[in-house]
Amino acid sequence: MKNIKYSKQKLDFTTELRNSVNEYFSDNNIQPYGNNKIYLKTILMTTLYLAPFILMISGIISSVLLVLACWIIMGVGMSGVGMVTMHDANHGTFSKHQWVNKIFGNSMYLLGGFPPNWRFQHNTLHHGFTNIEGHDEDIAPPGILRLSPHRPLKKIHRYQHIYAWFLYSLMTFSWIIAKDFKRFEKYREMGAKLSKNRKYNQMFVDIIISKILYYGVFLVLPLLTIPVSWFWIIIGFMLMHVTSGLVLSSIFQTAHVVPSSEFPVPDGNGELDNNWAVHQLYHLRLCT
Hints:
By secondary structure, the chain is mainly alpha-helical. The protein has ten helices and no strands.
């Protein structure tokens, strides 16, 4: 990964922007952190995620159709917990208390993912180098998908608008199966600082344990307790992830895959035309 340098021009704009934002919150007596709405949304989405699960493993719901419906509802709740709770907490905006943000940011474990990986990929790479080829991993899916004009154009890409939906549905499957391990190894080779206190070996153990616990709770436990055939449990588990993947990708891909998206290229010295704040405003008009 080549070093990217942002321009030092328009720094006065950045200062003015920060002052204007602070004045807006102050003048309108608004806290720059989550309020009761985000707490209510967190309760709602967590309930959508966990209540159907509890109803199934307790035996209250045992009909095959209702069991499958519960898994689909869990998929909606899963995506909601990711967007409403985990995302904002890892940005430090869920609460003014950073210990609260840390707790709710770790809800990524509940979704089968590894929080340190997500924070580095999203906060550092995506928001640090938005839409920059070779840095922003949000525009670097497998070769069969092409989200950046700077990537090789293949014949199969003419059908991307058709098969992309299938691949989008696998988004959260990749979290729980392979992506976390691949990203962790990649970030380790990069020398990325994923944690202030823990070493890579400790975090690798963390990944292993968290994956075992996730599969144990959300797959093995249902197989042992829900009174339907095992294959319906497997299908339901898959439906949950397909639902979550489609919801998440349908929302987040519009940050990039729209006609107005631009993909800046640094000059020969690795410098961009704008400073970081201007770059964010210009390229995150639709992004979160």
